[in-house]
Design goal:
By secondary structure, the protein is an alpha+beta fold. The protein contains 15 helices and nine strands. Strands 3, 4, 5, 6, 7, 8 and 9 form a seven-stranded mixed beta sheet that branches. The protein has a two-stranded antiparallel sheet with strand order 1-2. Helix 2 crosses helix 3. The N and C termini lie far apart (63 Å). 37% of the residues are buried. Bound molecules: iron/sulfur cluster. The site of iron/sulfur cluster has 14 residues, from helix 9 and helix 12.
Length: 390
């Protein structure tokens, strides 16, 4: 690990080679990236705004899922000014289905800060980037490395896995001490500065992309392809037969379980949705009225002149003017808890008064599917459409 190798560094055309020290790990990764890495991602070689957007979308989400969202987002908001000028509603509608909606809200807030504080130009300095909401140390470094060829270390989830294995670092990578060790290695393994006449670090973008590609395609969470790995010769985990032990899994803790009843109030083809207050997992998104328990839903119905006997959570609802069938309960898993969802479908002959106040909206179910809604609500609405219940 960390062997030093004398490698030629390509200088400016016609000026021959300039020689510089490049550590072994970095040079092998860069060569591998040129030959086997991904070169056709839509944000590769793009300006900082697009690199930033891709980095945020790629947090917790795979490339294949991100690409269509990224393309639709760029078509709707082609630059920072367009993103800042959009409403949060529009931004979240384009984020709908990607999950982790705080990412979309932060992206929007950051675009407005960039317009207000930096005249609409993506800030050029690492420290300024770090001040923007939703951008941590690794994301700021990735933007600097990929957009401006600045020599910065990244440490996202995939890179943590690669380095924990390659360096043989024990312990859960979310632990502060373990994370500090990983950052130390991430810095130490960076390619040495290798500047052309323009002063550009020519290797850092390839190296950063190589780490990302390695984590996604070779040093995968399960069934890593060590036989195809460019650093297999001195990978500590491979040499010590601990590939499947590293990184050390998160200490087991019982995942909290919560319950929610969603009242799917249907009038004709319309469904009632409420805008969730800002913050929280679904802040700013549209959801049917949600209750912790059936009794609370009955009380809400009573206040709105709907007879509680009409509500049958998770089973055939009573019908007033439509034949309605059941939507079965299901579970949605978040990273930190499980939500057991009971849909309660209720068809009403008239729209209740209270349900017409600001913050509430009646939308055609098909239109509601285009709005900023979280994934479990999409699941329920799709079932309504499929069963032709609305
Ligand atoms: Fe990962 Fe295997 Fe490569 Fe080690 S040899 S870095 S475990 S892919």
């Amino acid at each position: 690990m960390g062997k030093m190798l004398l490698l030629p560094c390509q200088g400016e055309a016609g000026r021959g080679f300039r020689f510089t020290y490049m550590n072994n790990f970095a040079s092998r990764l860069i060569r591998w990236q040129h030959k086997h890495g991904r070169h056709d991602l839509p944000w590769q070689g793009a300006e900082a705004y697009r690199v930033w957007l891709s980095e945020i979308m790629l947090q917790q989400t795979q490339v294949s899922t991100v690409i269509p969202y990224y393309q639709r987002f760029i078509a709707a908001f082609p630059n920072i000014a367009a993103l800042a000028a959009a409403s949060e509603e529009q931004v979240l509608a384009h984020w709908s289905g990607l999950g982790y909606y705080a990412r979309g809200r932060n992206l929007h807030a950051a675009a407005r800060i960039i317009v207000g504080r930096h005249g609409g130009e993506f800030p050029r300095r690492y420290e300024q980037i770090l001040e923007l909401p939703g951008i941590g140390r690794s994301t700021a470094a990735a933007i600097c490395a990929l957009a401006w060829h600045e020599r910065r270390a990244i440490l996202d989830g995939n890179v943590k896995r690669v380095l924990a294995r390659y360096c043989g670092i024990e312990g859960w990578t979310g632990d502060k001490k373990v994370e500090a060790q990983l950052w130390q290695q991430a810095e130490a393994l960076l390619p040495s500065p290798c500047r052309g006449i323009s002063g550009v670090n020519r290797n850092i973008a390839s190296y950063t992309q190589a780490l990302m590609d390695m984590g996604a395609t070779v040093c995968k969470r399960s069934q890593p392809k060590c036989g195809e790995c460019p650093v297999q010769a001195d990978c500590v985990a491979l040499q010590t037969d601990r590939v499947h032990e590293l990184p050390t899994p998160r200490p087991r803790k019982a995942v909290p379980e919560r319950h929610a009843l969603f009242l799917l109030l249907i009038h004709g083809n319309d469904i009632l949705l409420e805008k969730r207050p800002g913050g929280g997992i679904w802040g700013g998104l549209w959801c049917p009225p949600q209750f912790d328990e059936e009794a609370a839903a009955w009380a809400w119905c009573a206040q709105n002149g709907i007879e509680p006997r009409h509500l049958r959570a998770g089973s055939n609802p009573a019908k007033t003017n439509n034949q309605c069938a059941a939507i079965p309960p299901f579970t949605h898993t978040f990273t930190h808890f499980k939500l057991h969802i009971t849909p309660a479908l209720l068809c009403v002959a008239r729209k209740p008064q209270q349900a017409q106040q600001p913050g509430n909206v009646w939308l055609d179910v098909e239109d509601a599917l285009q709005a900023a809604i979280p994934a479990p609500v999409r699941t329920m609405l799709n079932l309504l459409v499929r069963k032709n219940l609305s």
